[in-house]
TrEMBL record:
It is a multi-pass membrane protein. This is RDD family protein. Pfam families: RDD (PF06271). Residues 1-21 are annotated as: Disordered. Residues 26-171 form the RDD domain. Keywords: Cell membrane, Membrane, Transmembrane, Transmembrane helix.
């Protein structure tokens, strides 16, 4: 009699299978960019409330007073906003467009990973920001911004799973999810 080897544990076969099919399909680029634009519109409300709070607490009387402190404050507020919602799975815009943020194994991301994703997502704005700091005119910075966003978005086509590169570096993915049927 020969002994048959034990069957592999279901957990081992599940963890080895981390393909895009197992985690859910990647939303197409147009849907992700539409979500990105919608997120930008929603951020106007966050900026308004944060700006009002900052102006009230710092007793700022003129818009250019404490400008750099306001920018740093908004950077922190945006970080808190995105880290909080991404750790829960999605922002309001992502919920609207049926997009969820998960790690490479398809699990919800931690707040630390969400913070890393937030910091890496600033790659979308670094070249235009650097040009602004170097004294390039506002029109040129705006053209550079739109050009760089287009280039960065198109670069996702070269990722094996069509993810944005800041997601690949952060160990996260954007996936399509379905609403539960009633």
């Amino acid at each position: 009699m020969t002994a048959t080897p034990p069957a592999p544990a279901p957990q081992a076969s599940l963890s080895a299978k981390t393909s895009s099919a197992a985690l859910g399909p990647t939303p197409n680029l147009w849907r992700r960019m539409a979500c990105w634009l919608y997120e930008g519109m929603l951020m106007f409300g966050v900026v308004f409330i944060a700006g009002y709070l900052f102006g009230t607490l710092s007793q700022t009387r003129h818009a250019l007073d404490n400008r750099h402190a306001l920018q740093a404050f908004l950077f922190v507020v945006f970080g808190i906003y995105f880290t909080w919602f991404w750790a829960k799975g999605q922002t309001l815009a992502q919920k609207t467009w049926l997009i969820r943020v998960v790690d490479t194994a398809g699990q919800p991301i931690t707040q630390a990973r969400a913070l890393l994703r937030y910091l890496l997502s600033w790659v979308w704005f670094l070249p235009p920001l650097a040009a602004y700091l170097l004294g390039v005119s506002a029109i040129e910075v705006l053209v550079l911004l739109f050009g760089w966003v287009a280039i960065w978005a198109i670069l996702s086509r070269f990722h094996p799973e069509r993810q944005f590169w800041h997601d690949a570096l952060a160990g996260t993915r954007l996936v399509h999810f379905e609403l539960p049927k009633k």
